């Protein structure tokens, strides 16, 4: 059974199983592209609700200040991103993935940023002790979802 989520996915159909996979995933890969078209891929912690994914810039060790992170600079230069959630299995008939493609923006502290941080803290206990209230949050408004795998083909 497929459900139509036009409000969130602009008419793309995504099965409840694919949406559940995204909601329950502990990690995804975020792909961004800089102003010269060079790709950048990083694993991220995230939450997903109502067609929007959020990922906070947390306190895990970084080489540069949060505002200088390549993913944030890339989003500022080119807001089109992709979030990939996948499941690997040695039995290749069980391989699945969901690509969420959309436009990213950077949320500074405020109402939506605070709600995203609360949701992220609810999903990841490690965030409880981190000072995230003033950190930027990536907001990805999903415009297209691509699902692949037998689990999603009915």
Care to give the gist of this entry?
With 154 residues, the protein is of the alpha+beta class.
Description:
This protein has 154 residues and is α+β, with helices and mostly antiparallel strands. Helices cover 22% and strands 36% of the residues. The protein has four helices and nine strands, in the order βαβαββββαββαβ. The protein has helices spanning 6-9, 16-24, 70-77, 111-123; strands at residues 3-4, 13-14, 28-33, 39-44, 47-49, 52-56, 80-87, 96-107, 137-148. The chain has a seven-stranded antiparallel sheet with strand order 4-3-7-8-9-6-5. A two-stranded antiparallel ribbon has the order 1-2. Strand 5 (47-49) and strand 6 (52-56) form a beta hairpin. It is globular. The N and C termini lie close together (7 Å).
Number of domains: 1
- The ordered H/E elements are EHEHEEEEHEEHE
Could you say what the CATH topology is called? Pnp Oxidase, Chain A
Please provide the count of β strands.
9
Mean pLDDT: 87
Q: What would the principal axes of the Cα set say about the shape?
A: globular
Unreliable stretches, pLDDT < 50, 5 or more residues? Answer: 1-11
Give the second-level CATH assignment, the architecture: Roll
């Amino acid at each position: 059974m497929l459900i139509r989520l036009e409000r969130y996915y602009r008419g793309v159909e995504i099965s409840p199983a694919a949406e559940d996979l995204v909601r329950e995933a502990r990690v995804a890969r975020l792909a961004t592209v800089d102003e010269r078209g060079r790709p950048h891929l990083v694993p991220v912690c995230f939450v997903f609700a109502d067609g929007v994914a959020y990922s906070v810039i947390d306190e895990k060790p970084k080489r540069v200040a949060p505002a200088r992170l390549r993913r944030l600079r890339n989003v500022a230069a080119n807001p089109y991103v992709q979030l990939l959630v996948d499941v690997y299995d040695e039995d290749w008939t069980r391989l699945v993935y969901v690509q969420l493609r959309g436009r990213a923006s950077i949320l500074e502290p405020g109402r939506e940023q605070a709600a995203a941080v609360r949701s992220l803290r609810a999903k990841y206990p490690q965030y409880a002790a981190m000072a995230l209230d003033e950190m930027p949050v990536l907001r990805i408004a999903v415009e297209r979802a691509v699902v692949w795998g037998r689990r999603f083909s009915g």
